[in-house]
Amino acid sequence: MIKPRIVIALCSVALCAACAGRGAIDSAQPAIAVPEAWQAGEPGEPLDVERYWDALGDPLLSSFVAQAAAQNRDLAVATARLAQARGGLRQARAGYLPSIYSNAGIGRDVGDRAADDFSFSIGGDVRWEADLFGRVGYDVAASRAGLAAAGYGLGDVQRLIVGQVAQITVSARALAVQLAIARQTLAVQEDNLQIAVWRREAGLVSSLDVEQARAQRAQTAATIPALESDLAASANTISTLIGEPPGRVLALLEAEAAPIPAPPTAFAREIPAAVLRRRPDVRQAEAFLIADTARIGLARAQLLPLVQLTGNINTASFGLGGLFDAITGNLFAGLSQLIFDGGRLAAQVDIAEAVAQGSLAGYEQTILVALEEVDTAGAELVAARQRVALFDEARDAADTAALLARSQYQAGLIDFQTLLTAENQLLSARNAYAAAEAERANAFIRLTQALGGGWSPTDIDFLVNPPPIILTADTEASR
Known about the structure:
Elements: H1 4-21, H2 59-71, H3 73-93, E1 99-108, E2 118-130, H4 135-201, H5 207-241, H6 248-255, H7 272-278, H8 280-301, E3 306-317, E4 327-336, H9 344-410, H10 416-450, H11 473-477
Antiparallel strand pairs: 1-2, 2-3, 3-4
Helix pairs in contact: 2-4, 3-4, 4-5, 4-8, 4-10, 5-6, 8-9, 9-10
């Protein structure tokens, strides 16, 4: 048995070693100057970016997003990673507690001179590590930050999946509109061909008009299968994102003729600092940095003494009645200190510091990318709005020109080539306007996605918020 004063002496030696061995870690502050405002900001009412797709006013799009949030397989993978990280945190926290093992046995001698009695034994062992130097604390801090990173990773996957579903649905709506335009144009060109045939039979024009009308009709008809194929591909992509086999989505898109969603005309944005705190990828990068910084302290703690308390208690007898008559046990306090390992543990400290430096650089890069995405998407949305207005004017003018050309051709005032040019201009203007509308909606989606929209921390009830970024490993171990 070790006397109490010897245990106190061992602890005193350990504390002195801790004071000598624990050193502060270099600051881990991102060297990024966050701007106070966006370059392409605009006035307007605040927008709920958590559910920005509702502002597009397309019920089918909203239903696809809701189904993706519930059934997307990439989200299921991220959820499993979060559960794994939660288990890792529980495992790390168990290091604060002692490990207790029990054992029991029953035996009987065999042989000519063996006794007939059974022998019984019961015992228990206890092992506990005194976390005097923060080894367990650093491990818990790293695991806690890892859990937060997994939670923010899940939020970021949801943010990206929601954006993909919304953008592909908008593109599918645009394809459906362009397909309708092609079919309507084909019907008009059928009429033009018939008119050209009648005029040729009346001797008013040559066969050139008929052949030109046939060529125009065939070219328009050839675009329809391609548009149908693109629409089917977009629908199948949506089906995969929302976690179901192909088929139903295409039927819904073909059955529900709807215009291309139009975003709000203007809305206010949060300041850059608030957007960065909202974006889950930025928060995840911060959590990675916290975890890797804590692992520096964990690696340094391996160089310090290890203090363990162990004990056991046992009893044995040849009968159950006297099993607890004689109980024996012992308690042992031990201290171990690395003397020489060829620099292996010191190299682990260097590795941990290098990993933390890499995480800091990754954190800074994530911040820069987030700022870039918001400003770029904002400029794209402004440009897309301008293009929609201009293409709307071009479409209106082309529609009027085509109507005039048809009436004048029927009256014999112009040749078929002039009508052909007017019809082609109208088809091009209508398709360009539809494409501009889709680009405007997608620019809105990209902007709100860049602002951190598409996910909500409150919807993920198991999300763990990480602590603020640490300056030293010592402050993190004290949490």
